[in-house]
Design goal:
Length: 145
């Protein structure tokens, strides 16, 4: 693959290789303490490492009604996957972040198997691993712009 090739086709060619090497088989439906719906997994993923910690911000980004998201957030709080706190600057707002259980649920529900992904990362140096993470973060952050 040429390094000056179109980045779109490079990503389209590379991602399936990673996906196939690390794919997890699972089927999830309504959230419970053992499983996540696709919607709830999306919410956890967006709350993992993001500035979208408020209901209205996240609802706008996900293109759903705040009331719809509020129901899902309340369910995830009840399942102890999210921790909710009052915003220090505006007590009318609630902030959401993943709990340790939420992080584990996100990892367990990922389409990328933890052990298989770790095996791939173990083939790279610490610097290369950080480059992989930074590249994916840049691409993910572009989705918020």
């Amino acid at each position: 693959m040429s390094t000056d090739a179109n980045p779109v086709i490079q990503i389209q060619a590379l991602y399936p290789k990673i996906y196939l090497a690390c794919h997890s088989e699972h089927s999830k439906s309504r959230s419970s303490t053992r499983s996540l719906s696709n919607r709830d997994m999306t919410i956890l993923a967006h709350l993992y490492d993001t500035q979208l910690t408020y209901n209205k911000q996240l609802a706008a980004h996900l293109k759903v009604a705040p009331s719809t998201l509020s129901e899902a957030l309340n369910n995830l709080v009840a399942l102890k996957m999210l921790v909710v706190s009052v915003d220090e600057e505006d007590e009318r707002k609630s902030r959401y972040r993943l709990s340790a259980l939420g992080e584990k649920a996100l990892q367990d529900s990922s389409v990328l198997n933890t052990q298989k992904l770790q095996q791939l990362l173990d083939k790279l140096s610490a610097t290369e691993q950080q480059q992989v993470v930074e590249g994916l973060r840049l691409l993910a952050d572009a989705s918020h712009q």
